[in-house]
Each structure stands twice: as C-alpha cells, then as structure tokens.
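Entry 14. Two folds queued back to back today. First construct below, sequence then structure tokens.
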Amino acid sequence: MQEARFYRIHDAEKHQVRCHLCAHNCIINNGKRGFCQVRENRKGTLYSLNYGRLISENIDPIEKKPIFHLLPGSLSFSIATVGCNFRCKHCQNYEISQYPRLYGGEIAGTMRTPAEVVAAAKEAGCQSISYTYVEPTIFYEFAYDCAQLAHAEGIRNIFVSNGYTGSAATRELAPILAANNIDLKAFTDKFYKEVCSAKLQPVLDTISLMHQLGVWVEVTTLIIPGWNDSDDELRDIARFIHSLSPETPWHVTRFWPTYQMTDRAPTPHETLRRAREIGLNTGLKYVYVGNIPDVAGENTYCPQCGKTVIERSGFSILANRLDHGHCPACKGKVAGVWE
C-alpha cells in the first residue's frame, strides 16, 4: 500500500475523506473504498491498494492502443492493475477492471517497482510505456512514478483513458505524458449514466484540457448499435473533436457483444464507414476504422494532396512514406509525433 494523492479530509471527527483523483470526487468513510474499489480510507488516510501490483504486462504495437500518430510501428510496454472508475456494461477487460468487485475486494497482481517497469520496457526495445487495459487514473500514483522515470530515460508515456481524470492530476501528468487516447463513448448523459455509471461533461473537460496542455490526443468511439450510432450523435462527437483541432485523430471502432451487453449484434461494417464519412465531412483530417479490416479506414492520408503516407493492416505498418512528418509527394505537414 501507498498513501494516495489528490484527497483531503472531509470530516476529521468521522475520519472521512474526499478523493479528487477523478471526477467522481468520492466521499469515503473510514474503512471504506472509493467507487474504483482500489483506494481505501483507513482512519482518515487514503491508501492506494494497487500500487505496483500489476495484473498485466505486455509488449504491444503502439497501433493497438490505438495511437496512430506517434512513433508508428514502434512497440509499447503496456501495464495495468485491477480496478476501474467506470462500470461499463460492455467492458472487454471486465475480468481485471471489475476484479475487486467480482472477488470480494481482493487486489490481485504481481509486485513491480517503477524501475523494474522501465527496465523491462528498455530491454524489450519499447519506445513507450502505455498505461492501459483498465482506466490508468485508478493506479495514478504508480503510473506517475513510472512515467517520471521513463520520461527521464527518453521513453514516451501514453495513457489509454476514459477521460475521467481530475483536473489537478491531469495538469500534473501532462508535462511527462506524450499521448493520451481518450474514449469519447457517446455524446449523451443517458449513455454515460446507464452504460458506464458516469457523466459526459467531465470527459469532454479532460479531453479539452489534455489538448490545451499540449498532450497529443487521439479520440476513440466504440460504436454500439442502438446506443450511439445515430447520424446526429456521431456528428455531435465529430464536431466536438473538430472544435479541439481538425487534426485530432478519431478512431471509430467495432463493438463486439461481451460482459453484460450481449443483447445486440456486432457493429455492421457499413455503420463504421458511415461514421468515418461523417467525421471527414465534418472537417476532421484523420478518421480511422478499427476492430475490423478496412483498408481505406486504416491508412493515413496526406490532408493536403490525399496521397497515402502510412499503410496499415490491423496493428501492422505495411509502409511508412513520411519524410520527417511531411508528405513525400506535396511536402505538406502531417500532424503527429513521428521521431
């Protein structure tokens, strides 16, 4: 255990604390845990129960995050603990994100130090460390310690996030965070409340703040039939992303039935193509189709002349024709972090 950060005493007499790490801002009674189930109040001191307890350590292509505009073709050392501050009914990683709820509060995982994580990343030839699979904010203390060390060693840090990080933690993390792929799961409070047990506005706020602070942001929307696949909602999402920057990549990805949402079919390919067209017609320069083979929707095109500058197949780079971030045909700039 390690003392948690971003909390304060709420009621000293009752040993009650308030956690400000994420947008839930939980008031936590003595002996109880926050919504994430991995932060526990013990007589007025809040502890991170999952510090260094890694449930997953993998070497992934950076495209799997998905991050398409930072060091394409490179490897990313991916880590996670148990726990999450969302309760998504369609979570593909529910076995670890909901682990404490499924197993009576148990905090599973193998103990690691930040130095061990960074050393493992270097040994594997990874150019980045991704904090992923569950919401990394819930293991913020460990992620931040790893990120500081990685940053000093010249290794990039990547969050794959639901966007519920509190503003104070966001501001502290941003200087050592190279990229953040943030899920914008829908554009209604109904979806966030009923599917994720959360709210929409804090996600919009985090996406905007990360962008303002200079972090390279890519946005992902998993399109679920009957939930967030209408033209109006997809257009609202695209317009919001465009308001950040037309150069912000948008990944529209295929839903597969899982966990508590097995009552609907996988997303039709045509829906994803329609979403991509909506994004492009809104003015976004980079819109990608994911979780299903789609040659047109996987490649990166020069926004000036339309030439293919990066060819992809799934998580693999078939050809990278960029010349120091520029199109070799027209010399136009392609947004991203390429070197």
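Second construct, same run, same settings:
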Amino acid sequence: MAERVVVVTGAAGGIGAALARRMAGLGARVVVSDLDGERAHAVAEDIGGTLVAGDAASEDGVAALVETVEDLLGPIDVWFANAGVDLGQGLDSAEADWSRSWDVNVMAHVRAARLLVPGWLERGEGWFVSTASAAGLLTMIDAPAYSVSKHGAVSFAEWLSVTYRHRGIRVHTICPQGVQTAMLERSGALAAVLGRDRVLSPDQVADATWEAMTEGRFLVLPHPEVGDYYRARAGDTDAWLVGMNRLQQRFEGALGAR
C-alpha cells in the first residue's frame, strides 16, 4: 500500500476510521470521506490523511469525490465503499428508508465503480473493497431494508469480481457480525443477536480485511463462524429459516411481542 491513493468512505468513525488508520499505517495516502466533516477531519488529522467531506452515495457526490481526490493526489488505487446506513424496522419501514438504504448501501458502490473501473482496466490493477455485513450473506432480524440492501452490496461485489478478476481488479467484501460501533449501540434488543458469538473492535475488522486482501480472498469474515452459517444456509435453507425464525420469536419476546 505504500504511496497508494486510498479512499475510505464513511470514515468518520467505526470500521471506516479503522480502515483508514490501517491503510495509513501501511504507508498509503489516505483520503477520509464522510458526511460528518468535523469527525472526519479529526480522523484525517490523526492519521496524516486528506479530508474530502461530502456525500459519497449520490451520483453527483461520488463524482465530486473522485474528481477532487484525483485533482489533489492523482489516480485512485483503492476504494473502500464503507459508508452505510441501517434504516427502518419491520414491514412498516418507510419508502424513504428503503430508498436511502438502496442509495447508500448499493448504488454508492455502483456509482463509484462506474468511475473507477475504466481507469483501473487501463492501468491493469485496482482494488474495490465494500463493507457489507453478515446480513448480506444471511439476514437481519427486524431490518428488511438493511438486509436486502446488504445482500445487494455482496451481489454487486460478486459481479465485479466475476467480470474483472482476470483483468487485474481485486474485489473484497467485508461481512462481520457484531462490531463495537454506533450502529450496534443503537440496536437495542437486537444487540444480543448481533453479539451472540462475540463483538469485535473496528480495528480487528480492519486487520481481518488487510489479511484477506493480501491473501486474495473475496469474502472478509472477521467472525469466521459466519462462513459456517453461510454454508448451513446453503446446505439446508429450510432448516436455516426455522432457526432464524426461532431467533425472531426470541427477539419478539424480548420486546414484549410488539
């Protein structure tokens, strides 16, 4: 990563800030991007990175971010599509929550790839690393917009890898369970489900990501047991759904069966 130009979206805290720190520690020239300019500035200052605040999800916002970075530092080598949202609960999730979830958790990745891949193909290399979730491989209790959009994030990353792997583009997708972030703190009764195995620090997720990148593994599984769950889901989907429904029932019990 020495002297590579690395962009991390959603880098004001949590996994994004940890990824930015990890890449800076490897000698990369790191761009910290987030809607929260004040917190992102603190991260950039701490790691000796470059702050480019703004919306990394909208079409115009992604285009502005890419253009600004390339004007300041030159061609982008590595893109961490880390910005994400967890909006809405249950079947009553609002249309706006579905729309924003799709924009941030999926279309932000598509929009970045459209701008980056042509240059990477010319140069013969590039890295695209998306932060999805174990929910993108399995599902998430009470969070339909999050689950569906994270499945979409994994699927898009798979498509990128299938399409461009032989042309030097490396694609990885990060799929952790419980991580000590603001999202976990807001999850209330779901925290017991998310942390049923163990809760990792963002730095542990960043370390697992770099390990997967160096080994060329598409799936980044900071919680290795997620791989076992994923295989179980594929091997006997009905049994998996029965087990998940039991979790749903326990979740409803914890809420007083709302």
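Quick look at the second one. The chain has one domain: 5-225. The chain has a mean pLDDT of 93.
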